Structure formats: structure tokens, C-alpha cells
UniProtKB/TrEMBL annotation:
Keyword Transcription regulation set for record: yes
InterPro entries named among the record's database cross-references: Homeodomain-like_sf (IPR009057), HTH_TetR (IPR001647), Tet_transcr_reg_TetR-rel_C_sf (IPR036271), TetR_C (IPR011075)
Domain of life the protein comes from: Bacteria
Name this polypeptide is given: TetR/AcrR family transcriptional regulator
Organism encoding this protein: Dryocola boscaweniae
Length: 179
């Protein structure tokens, strides 16, 4: 629900109705909507870390092909839900000025975690001479995630994987400035 409607637009009543539990049960587990949102974000962070590791740590593929695999998988996942769902973190980033302050630190830590995971893959690509770009892998990772979140938003808007594919194709070309 939160990936489709946003956190601020998702009411507790609709959550308990969807999962089929009494409202009192919600408050047994969560003190308030903020606690619920932080729990959802923590679960998503774990889920997405596993998704990234599945692709980025697959040493059967060269490093950039692992990112290709992630991009393909993400696009298929969005298409499976008719582009109504995007990235929970991206959605929350858009809502962040209106969210409780506790969300900002968790969102920053989540982005840093993702950056760290892709840095390893990009550094391996640099070490294996797949990347000709002279910028540090950490800078490339920040640029990747900044562009990726924008591509995810556009994919939702246009209901197409094309923005994801276009972003990744552009990013890969940018890694090869001498070619």
C-alpha cells in the first residue's frame, strides 16, 4: 500500500482493513503510524539489500553485467505490478519534508547502505578495467542512485521500463569516456 499510495496518504484504517485485523491489533504492535512506517522501512531495507546482493554478488557474471541483471529484474518487478509500485525509499524521499524527523536518518542510512553495496561492484569493474572513468567508485555509486531513483519515478509515470533502461545505458556509456 505504501509503495502505491505513499506513507502520508496511507491511513491506519486502510492498513488494518487490507490485512484483516482489528484496529486494536495494530496498536498492540505499533505505538503509532510513525512506528509502523519505520518498521515498514526497516523491512524494505532488508528486502532490498537481499535483492541487491543477489545480483551484485553474483560472481558468475562480470561486474557491470551484474548491474545489468539488477536493472532487468527491477524493471520486471515494476511491470509485474503495472508500474503502480515503485521504490519505497524513493517515495519516502519525496515525502520527507513532511515526514517525522526520525525518517530522515533511516532514509540516509538506507541510501548509504545501497551505495556501499554498489561501490563494491563498481570498484571491481574498475579493477577489471570494465570502467574507464577516473572518478572514484563511491562518487559513481552516488550518481547511480541519484539517477536511478529518478528513473524509477519516470518508469511509474510512463508505465514503462524504458526510463530504467535509458538511464542504465547512459550511465554505462558515461563510464567509458575515452570510447
Amino acid at each position: 500500500m505504501v509503495t502505491e499510495n505513499g506513507f502520508l496518504s496511507t491511513g491506519i484504517d486502510s492498513v488494518v482493513k487490507t490485512v484483516g485485523v482489528p484496529k486494536g491489533s495494530f496498536y498492540h504492535y505499533f505505538t503509532n503510524k510513525e512506528a509502523f512506517g519505520l518498521a515498514v522501512l526497516a523491512a524494505y531495507k532488508r528486502y532490498f539489500a537481499q535483492k541487491l546482493d543477489k545480483h551484485l554478488l553474483n560472481t558468475a557474471l562480470p561486474p557491470l553485467a551484474r548491474i545489468d541483471d539488477f536493472v532487468l529484474s527491477a524493471g520486471l518487478g515494476m511491470a509485474r505490478f503495472n508500474f503502480t509500485r515503485g521504490c519505497l525509499v524513493g517515495n519516502l524521499l519525496q515525502e520527507s519534508p513532511l515526514l517525522p524527523d526520525t525518517f530522515a536518518d533511516v532514509l540516509k542510512a538506507t541510501l548509504f547502505d545501497w551505495q556501499t553495496r554498489i561501490v563494491r561492484c563498481l570498484q571491481e569493474a574498475i579493477d577489471k578495467d570494465e570502467i574507464k572513468d577516473m572518478r572514484p567508485a563511491c562518487e559513481l555509486a552516488i550518481t547511480f542512485w541519484t539517477g536511478w531513483e529518478g528513473a524509477v519515478m519516470r518508469a511509474k509515470l510512463f508505465r514503462s521500463t524504458e526510463p530504467l533502461d535509458d538511464f542504465w545505458a547512459f550511465f554505462k556509456r558515461a563510464l567509458q569516456p575515452n570510447i
